[in-house]
């Protein structure tokens, strides 16, 4: 009840600032909020519900296996298609948590069966990847609910990565990293324009944002473990340079947000940033994590900030154990980077305190 009153207060505040021309449907806003609250649950309950739906789906699949339905590749493929369609229909027509979690497990199982069925029919890797990518894209176009859209975005990214790895076209990793990173940056920096463009895009914004973050991280994790895939390291700096451009742009935007207009201070910040980031020129994963952190900090996206910090800690540890550099060089680079990060933090913290006093 108190939250409902808070929404009314927010609406009244916006109305007072916008004037008499501001129009809104209070009944529809409150109804949508109550609908959202009715289906809100804790993270633990959601996780348990998803596992429950997953095990229920697997039990049903076990029953079908006992009926010897899966002795035919066509039957597996057909079951997978039915599962995917049923999951989309359930998620689109029912808003309850139990249907949401059941549709998620059914959707994922459907994709697994689809892949197994196509493989059993001797469909080659590239056509198989393309089919799964198209199905994921159709899911986003047909159904804009959060979880299925998130899974579809992740699946599409996985298809692109699988295409690069299976074809050993490792030079496309640079294009993948930059495309995902810049798309994520555009999405987060233009949130207001996107969510007000139309209803469908406003629904897709949240799942696409978190989906692109994980998609970028998946690509960066593969680049960190490039030895597993026997990836060449000759042009690994290319991704770093392009990511560095994005990071420096964000640094300039953050300085504008913090009203740092003094040229001397700006030059100091730019120099410190370049010194810190230049040490990671052969570790694009670190720059990718920093990009996620700065984007999330700039738009006040706490979930993304936590993910970025966690990813940065992981990638720095992987960078430290990179056998291509000597221990002394890595220690000097990481030590100097830590000192510069502390100096940068103290500088921005001092500026923040000064602004509060004003």
UniProtKB/TrEMBL annotation:
It comes from the Bacteria. It holds the Pfam family DUF4401. InterPro entries: DUF4401. Residues 43-347 form the DUF4401 domain. Keywords: Membrane, Transmembrane, Transmembrane helix. The chain crosses the membrane at residues 43-66, 72-90, 97-121, 127-143, 148-166, 172-189, 210-229, 235-255, 267-298, 304-321, 328-347. The keyword Acetylation does not apply. The keyword Lipid metabolism does not apply. This is DUF4401 domain-containing protein.
